[in-house]
Amino acid sequence: MHRINLLLFFIGLSINSNAQFLKTKADAIVNEKGEKIILRGMGLGGWMLQEGYMFRLSFLGQQYRIKEKIADVVGEEKTKLFYEQWLLNHTTKKDIDAMAAWGFNSIRLPMHFNLYTLPVDDEPVKGQHTWIEKGFAMTDSLLSWCKVNKMYLILDLHAAPGGQGNDLPISDRNPSKPSLWESEANREKTIALWKKLAERYANEPWIGGYDIINEPNWGFEDPKNDFRGTAEKKNEPLRELMIAITKAIREVDKKHIIIIEGNGFGNNYRGVLPQWDDNMVLSFHKYGNFNTDASIKNFLDLRQQYNMPLWLGESGENSNTWFTEAIGLVEKHGIGWAWWQEKKMGINNPLEIKRPEGYDRLLNYWSGKGPKPTEEEAWNTLQQLLQNVKFENNVFHPDVVDAMIRQVQSTSTIPFKKHVINKNTIIKAVDFDMGRQRFAYYDTDSARYQYTPGVNTDGNKGHTYRNDGLDIKTGNDGAYVTDIETGEWLQYTVTVSEAGRYKVSFLIATDKDSCSLSLQQDSKTIINGIALPATGDMQNFQSSSTSIISLKKGTTVFRVLAAKGGFIFSAIQFTKTK
User: Fold this and answer.
1) Beta 489-496 vs 441-442: how paired, if at all?
2) In terms of residue numbers, what domain contains 446?
3) Which of 23, 144, 323, 448 is in the most buried spot, having the most CB atoms within 10 Å?
């Protein structure tokens, strides 16, 4: 055992010897050599802090309410056991290893204060701070995984004592209790927590920085009409608290970057600046608006005015097209980013948590739409959910990672799946190439701009299978492409194993009699406007008439083009003729 501990000690020394503290230099984040660093990161939402929408529980919202509902069906003891296992299973070294392999160089940890210290109301001695080892131990483990992968870990106080805003799920806030802004005791605990964290990690170079308050959203001057602080002019309490936190950190840690966020979900900096520390980064958050220079001009102007770095501390929840555009935009301006989030239920993250059997019955009961399941039924469902959150049981979405890393740098396309044409081959329509919109596919509506008035687009309307901006739904026979409009197309890179003549047909469904499609091979049209049969029902798939084409052995690229839209598309079939 002594030898093992000694070996681990020297491994730790070796890792740290290669590490360099991040710091600010004018308007850039740099390492100790002065080299500019672009942080490409992922947030671990849902691990220490659950938000209802992540698990189809938007009607519950806050984590404490989810806990109450679980206790209602399985009791307090099993609820406690469930959350112990959740924290063990949700994020492990396998997750961090995978993110490093995918190309990410940093992790943002959304922390819930109650894993590190007791709530103010539960303190046995008023005004004192009871420290809980659980949160610190989890952070230590995560940091060790990051070290091995040479990734920076950014600590983010996502749920501050009392809650920092009127968007309740973000901070697991109970509105019946005093918020962070309504309680001096909550603010003192927040300051003390950051001092404790800074003291623990002061000499850890793989800690990239301290994101001290996530998305404050509070109306200080006009709480009735501006309850989320988007129109706040002064932000005096926010600035005052962040200065106090910084002062406490600097008493024990002179090295690490302090990351600040404005009011109104991190973006309202009126009255917050100028900065009060010489190692400070301004974070902003970006969701659902256009990816143009104009969309971030305010932050670019602040960077220039105050000569301080920017960091896109949170973004995501959209289609791959939007991801590539947004990341390309900020990297063009030398700005790093952290995406939201690694895993949840749904397709717009690298990993998808599968819904366990019986989960809908739980949701129906909790939402008042169905009967209460038995304790055994509910526990079995929750046990399966605990298995489903594990990395090895998640559904990996390679298209999401490709859009965030490779596609930002390249317009080239790569196969989504390996397609080999032989004697009789069926290629699923949904398995088109990975790449940018207009390079791997074209859809007239490829992203959501929900925060842009008058723009009502949705990306993948079916919200299934993959996150590209192409409409996909799932039926009895699997996933298919739907809502196909005239001019839209999909590309497939294939390998022909044997040269020869092949019959080609398309499995489609339509309730119209005027639809048609074309097939291109290596940019040359080889089937022009083939008429598609009206199948009478949009779920009644039938094969089109066949065409004969000649193929050479080797790699080739096909594009299926909607010459006249209005159909749904399931597959292409190639059959070698004699």
Assistant:
1) antiparallel
2) 411-576
3) 323
CA distance 341 to 350: 8
Residues 216 and 317 in one domain: yes
Q: Is the pTM of this model over 0.90?
A: yes
pLDDT at 7 over 90: no
How many C-beta atoms surround the C-beta of residue 171 within 10 A?
Answer: 31
Give DSSP secondary structure letters for 125-152: STT---B-HHHHHHHHHHHHHHHHTT-E
Tell me: pLDDT of 452 over 90: no
Asked whether the predicted pLDDT for residue 131 surpasses 50, the reply is yes
Sequence-distant contacts of 297-306: CB under 8 A, at least 24 apart: 298/267, 299/267, 300/333, 302/269, 302/273, 303/27, 304/27, 305/273, 306/273, 306/274, 306/275, 306/282
Residue 7 lies in a domain: no
∠ CA 331-334-339 to the nearest 5 degrees?
45
- DSSP code of residue 571: E
Token code pair at residue 184: 């001096």
Shared-domain flag, residues 101 and 155: yes
Quick one: pLDDT at residue 477? 86
| pLDDT surpasses 50 at 136 | yes
Which tens digits make up the pLDDT trace of 361-420?
Answer: 999 999 999 999 999 999 999 999 999 999 999 999 999 999 999 999 999 999 999 999
356 and 429 assigned to the same domain:
no
Per-residue pLDDT reduced to its tens digit, 474-524: 998 899 999 999 999 999 999 999 999 999 999 999 999 999 999 999 999
Q: What is the 3-state secondary structure (H, E, C) of 205-272?
A: CCEEEEECCCCCECCCCCCCCCCCCCCCCCCHHHHHHHHHHHHHHHCCCCCCCEEEEEHHHHCECCCC
